[in-house]
Amino acid sequence: MAKPSHLFLATVPKCGTAWLKALIFSTMHRSPHDFSSHPLLTASPHGCVPFLERQLVNYQNDTPNDLVSHYGPYWDHVLGHRKASLESPNKVLFSKYENMKREPLANFKRLAEFMGWPFTEEEEREGVSQAILELCSFENNLEVNKLGVEWLSDEIVVKNSEFFRKGVVGDCENYWNLKGEMTKCLDRITEEKFIGCGLNCDKPPKS
């Protein structure tokens, strides 16, 4: 049963869930753990965060091309949380993966503030927020999770390596056969669905 002290992280798969779990865990427990011997250097974020202790919701989404959805239309899922964040901004934080990647430090501080664990002036001078970002970087997560497994239930075991991709916006082209007309169709539907809600369909720059 949900309690006033609980924090829920709500995402669809492949939207940076493990990254946010690592950031949230490190923010809430930044005093007890020295960065040189931090649990996240040897354990998966999923293993470090069985539950979180605030009744707040951080919802993070990604573009539809870059994620997996087993729970109905992607757009309904996103718009429901977007509406909740506008109605209760002190209870629901809506964040975008692309924004987290584009300006990680600013968005991370926003997350910490929302959680009620803002960084003090002394911590800022000591570079604590930047140190946590580096600790939770994709490079560290990928290295730590090359080995080991995560037990999702008594029957379901998943390799830790399966939880992580490169973390590159638009990396879907290396996994899904979404090119040409299919990509254009998804982009068009997304733009139509998001009209008037303050969201857009971020696309990675052409190389």
Automatic annotation (TrEMBL):
What Pfam families has UniProt attached to this entry? Sulfotransfer_1
> What sequence ranges are listed for the domain Sulfotransferase?
4-57, 68-197
- Signal peptide span: none
Task: Tell me the domain of life.
Answer: Eukaryota
The entry's keywords: Hydrolase, Transferase
Family statement: Belongs to the sulfotransferase 1 family.
Q: What is this protein called?
A: Sulfotransferase
Q: GO MF terms on file?
A: hydrolase activity; sulfotransferase activity
Gene3D superfamilies (alphabetical): P-loop containing nucleotide triphosphate hydrolases
Q: What is its EC number?
A: 2.8.2.-
